Amino acid sequence: MKKLNYATQEINTLMVTAIPEDCDLLFFYAPVTDLTEAEKTMVSTYMQGGGNVILVLGDGSKETPNLDALMVEYGMQMSKGYVADPSRSLQQNYEYVIPVLSLSGEMASGIQSEMVLLVYPRGMQTVTPARDTISVEEFMKTSENGVAVWGETTADQAGGTYVLGA
Question: Can you say whether the dihedral through the CA atoms of 141, 145, 151, 155 is positive or negative?
Answer without folding.
Answer: positive
